[in-house]
Design brief:
Blueprint: H1 2-9, E1 41-47, E2 55-60, E3 108-113, H2 128-135, E4 148-149, E5 156-161, H3 169-185, E6 189-194, H4 200-211, E7 214-219, H5 239-245, E8 249-259, H6 270-274, E9 278-281, H7 291-301, E10 305-311, H8 333-341, E11 347-354, H9 365-379, E12 385-386
């Protein structure tokens, strides 16, 4: 039974792949923090009858104190190749990366926040992190378009989910803030799988406590600068007003891109403009490349700490229907890539991808988009090398 459990929790590798092991300093669940290679050690059970060059076997937990050459040509954690490990095999982690219990020892970490208590229309974003992870099995090691090699540059792992309180939104915000304070204290850059947009508020509380007020590249159909709804001050329509009130944002370095939709007020962008935000309505993005815009954004952000918050409803629902508050006439996936790739060179201290509600998209395309956009965010983090021109 133990062999079967490890087969489900880790991955099957052919013997010839030269599987990696790691030196453990604590328990297996926290081993990745001090490692250079994936925690995969093959124990052969039977020879394959179909291929004389490949052996079958279940993966075993790493052996304490053991080390082996890394088979991937990187000293860091690397997503396994589908040429060697079938995509459905293994734990459902982001890009099938190793999972560890904390951010200790990591340069960047994927972390889920499965919360949708603050949604105003269709719920379901609590299942976003799980579905994004599932679809991320299609995302590979290198960025073939930009040449970015994040897994040859940074130590990255999936550190699981924040344990939120689905019945108490303010308490969930406390739990998120405290969790991210630990992540930030370790020196790790968090890449967040949402969850709805309320989660950005406590995340920015934690980041601003370390970095001071941060710049913000915010992609969304909505400004999320409302004040109250149904008497409540915290929900997914208010995070950035709360951030302004608590001086978490450098208001001269906030840009909101893709904003659109009907409104309750004649000028729904008035508050953002009063705060000095740059608002780029969706109609200013139609039928054009956003590379020139991102050149201006880079100049605006400078070299000070900047956060990327990407609401999947910033994209047109033709591309991303799996979300709770869709608005027509949005951005294209190509424009989303231009925005994120245009952040290369910024001092990025954190990112999130929010509002994926998978039950409204049976194709899985919305979560697949989310997984790819998170990978693109990883590729533009400081310190990521480019392996070609």
């Amino acid at each position: 039974m133990r062999h079967l459990l490890w087969a489900g929790c880790f991955q099957l590798l052919p013997r010839q792949a030269g599987p990696c092991t790691r030196k453990l300093t604590t328990a297996v669940t926290s081993a990745v923090a001090t490692s250079h290679c994936g925690p995969w050690l093959l124990a052969p059970l039977a020879a394959s009858s179909s291929s004389p060059s490949v052996s079958k076997g279940f993966l075993q937990p790493p052996i304490l104190g053991s080390r082996a050459p890394c088979c991937w040509g990187s000293q860091f954690n690397v997503p396994p190749s589908a040429l060697l490990v079938a995509r459905p095999v293994g734990v459902c982690s982001m890009m099938r990366l190793p999972v560890q219990a904390s951010a200790q020892g990591l340069d960047a970490a994927f972390v889920g926040v499965p919360l949708d208590t603050g949604t105003s229309n269709r719920p379901g974003a609590r299942f976003g992190p799980r579905q994004i992870r599932a679809e991320s099995a299609m995302v590979r090691r290198y960025n073939g378009s930009t040449g970015a090699a994040p897994f040859d540059s940074l130590r990255v792992a999936d550190i699981g989910d924040v344990s939120v309180n689905l019945y108490n939104l303010p308490d969930s915000c406390r739990l998120i803030r405290e969790s991210y304070q630990e992540i930030v204290a370790s020196g790790c850059v968090p890449l967040t799988l949402g969850g709805e947009h309320t989660i950005t508020y406590p995340i920015l509380q934690a980041l601003a406590a370390k970095h001071g007020p941060v710049g913000l590249v915010h992609v969304d159909a909505h400004t999320d600068t409302g004040d109250t709804a149904l008497g409540e001050r915290i929900y997914h329509g208010t995070p950035f007003r709360r951030c302004v009130e608590e001086r978490l944002l450098d208001r001269s370095r906030v840009v909101q891109i893709g904003i659109r939709g009907s409104s309750y007020d004649p000028d729904p962008y008035e508050y953002s403009r009063q705060q000095g935000f740059r608002v780029v309505p969706a109609e200013e993005c139609w039928m054009k490349s956003l590379e020139p815009l991102m050149g201006e954004v880079r100049a605006q952000m400078g070299d000070r700490p900047t956060y990327i918050s990407f609401d999947i409803d910033g994209l047109d629902p033709a591309y991303a229907p799996g979300t709770g508050t869709p608005e027509i006439a949005g951005l294209t996936p190509a424009q989303a890539l231009e925005i994120i790739r245009g952040c290369k060179g910024l001092n990025i201290v954190g990112c999130d991808l929010v509002e994926v509600a998978p039950m409204y998209d049976v194709s899985g395309n919305t979560a697949l988009l989310g997984a790819n956009l998170l990978f693109e965010m990883l590729c533009v983090l400081p310190g990521v090398r480019t392996l070609r021109g």
